[in-house]
Each structure stands twice: as C-alpha cells, then as structure tokens.
C-alpha cells in the first residue's frame, strides 16, 4: 500500500515522514544553561573583586618602634571607625622582650605603590596581658590605635559571628614585608590571600577560642583582617615557627567576636 495520499491534486506525506528535521529542545536548553553559568560566574567575580577593593581600602600599614635603637616592627591594621580614626591591630607589634616598645608608631595609608600619607598614631586601648601564641595569650594580642585624619575614612564593619567550621573559605588581607624598592619599601600593595579554616579551637564548653587558617601569611600581615563571605570574622596574628621553619598551615587568628565587648566604645554606634 502506498504511504502517500493526495489532497487537492498535491502529494502529502505523513507526519512521520516529514521532510523537515525535528530538532530536540535539549540542545538549546544546554546552551542557555551554559550562557547563564558563564554570566553568573562573571557577575560573581565582579562582585568579589568589588569586595576585595573595599577591604583593601580599609587596611593600613603599621610601623612601630620608629626612631628607637634596634629594629622596628611592621604589621597591618584595620580601620574600624569612619570618623574617629580608630585602627585595630596586634599588640605584639608593640611588644618586645616582655615589654612594650618605646618608639613612635606610624600608620601608612597607601594606594597601590603610592604612599598617600604617613601619620603618627597613639594607643587608645589594648589587651591586658602579654601577647603570644597560646590560646590564653592570643586574647591579649590586640590594640586600638588612633590617627588624626580627615574623615570619612573607609572602614570595615566587624562581624559578631561566633559559629565557625573547619574548611570554610576565608581571605586574609595585609602588607607583606618586601625588599626595598624604588617605589615602596614595604611591598607594592595590600595582598589578598585565599585559604580555609584548617582548625577551630574550642574550650570545654564548646566556645571558639582560636582560629587557624592555611593561607600562607608573610611577615607584615599581622593585624590584617580575615573575612568570610565579605565579613571580618578575625584578625591575623602570628604563624607557628619551629626551629626557624614556618608551617604554612599554622596561621593563628583572633576571632573578632571575642573582642567586641572590650572594643565596643571604639566602634560606630550602628
């Protein structure tokens, strides 16, 4: 029997033998999903870059023991108040041989390789004990500095979060020490390091006492902020050094929530 039939003197073909190729919609759907994935990735990268730039603007370079005999100390600091010039950094930058150094403190505001301004700083408050690597000493490793600089200043709000899990992604910001160059003897700019929380120390009640991350911090990055999803959750403190060898997986950080009660008077009211 013929597979064709006639209508109005024209040869018609059954649908199953249509000369037009029927295309599956799945190819178009896959292509659309790929485009959306690429666009979403680009948007995420852009927003992540904006977050990095905002954080960088609020990180300053701190020099201590300036003008005294012996070596000075370099670290990083976090601007925490937009109008009063308060900066949070590590107390161990002011501490040497069991006592506080007597030299001047300088805060350097930098942008890329340009040093915008160098201002003297004064101590407003600090941890009441000797800073160090143990959990007990770590809670003393903070100091509030103040500079007199026209406001408003870029600043980083501090997160109150007290819940942390190992292997969470974090970022560490700071000014690593570098060999002297013609433009900036302290390194070209704020460095952003990526890592994870490699360990979360807790007390007997389950409360967090210390954070450890595996971002390979360098000397000079002490006092810089540690962020999680764009929020400051900790302050970089010291890395573990044994027999002159640095363990890149042992970088200690002071959880910010442990400081909030002590430094609340130096934070914006909101």
What do you see in this structure?
There is one protein chain. The protein has three helices and 17 strands. The strands form four sheets. Strands 9-8-3-4-5-11-10 form a seven-stranded antiparallel sheet. Strands 12-13-14-17-16-15 form a six-stranded antiparallel barrel. The chain is 15% helix and 39% strand. The termini are far apart. The protein is mainly beta and 270 residues long. It is globular, with a radius of gyration of 28 Å. The longest helix is centred in the first third of the chain and has 32 residues. It has two domains: 30 residues; 208 residues, Thrombin, subunit H, CATH 2.40.10.
Largest beta sheet: what is the strand line-up? 9-8-3-4-5-11-10
What's the main sheet like?
Answer: 7 strands, antiparallel
**What would you say the CATH architecture of the largest domain is?**
Beta Barrel
Per DSSP, the total helix count is 3
CATH topology of the largest domain: Thrombin, subunit H
List low-confidence stretches.
41-50, 179-186
Distance between the termini: 86 Å
Which class of secondary structure composition applies to the elements?
mainly beta
**How many strand segments?**
17
> What's the helical proportion of residues?
10-25%
Instruction: Please identify the top-level CATH class of the largest domain.
Output: Mainly Beta
What oligomeric assembly is this protein in? single chain
Strand proportion, as a percent range, falls in: 35-45%
Helix and strand sequence: EEHEEEEEEEEHEEEEEEEH
What general form does the structure show?
globular
């Amino acid at each position: 029997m013929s597979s064709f039939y006639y209508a109005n003197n024209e040869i018609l073909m059954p649908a199953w033998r249509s000369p037009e190729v029927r295309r599956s919609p799945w190819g178009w759907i896959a292509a659309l999903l790929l485009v959306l994935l690429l666009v979403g990735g680009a948007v995420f990268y852009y927003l992540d870059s904006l977050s990095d730039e905002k954080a960088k603007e609020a990180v300053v370079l701190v020099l201590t023991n300036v003008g005294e005999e012996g070596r000075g100390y370099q670290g990083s600091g976090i601007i925490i108040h937009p109008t009063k010039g308060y900066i949070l950094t590590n107390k161990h930058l002011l501490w040497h041989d069991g006592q506080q150094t007597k030299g001047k403190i300088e805060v350097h505001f930098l942008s890329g390789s340009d040093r915008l301004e160098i201002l003297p700083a004064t101590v407003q408050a600090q941890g009441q004990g000797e800073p160090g690597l143990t959990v007990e000493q770590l809670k003393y490793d903070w100091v509030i500095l103040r500079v007199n600089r026209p406001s408003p200043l870029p600043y980083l709000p501090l997160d109150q979060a007290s819940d942390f899990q190992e292997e969470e992604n974090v970022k560490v910001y700071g000014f690593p020490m570098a060999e002297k160059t013609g433009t900036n003897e302290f390194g070209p700019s704020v460095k952003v390091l990526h890592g994870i929380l490699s360990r979360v120390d807790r007390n007997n009640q389950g409360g967090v006492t210390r954070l450890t991350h595996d971002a390979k911090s360098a000397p000079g990055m002490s006092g810089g902020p540690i962020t999680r999803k764009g929020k400051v959750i900790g302050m970089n403190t010291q890395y573990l050094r044994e027999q002159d060898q640095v363990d890149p997986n042992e970088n200690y950080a002071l959880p910010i929530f442990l400081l909030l009660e002590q430094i609340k008077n130096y934070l914006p009211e909101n």
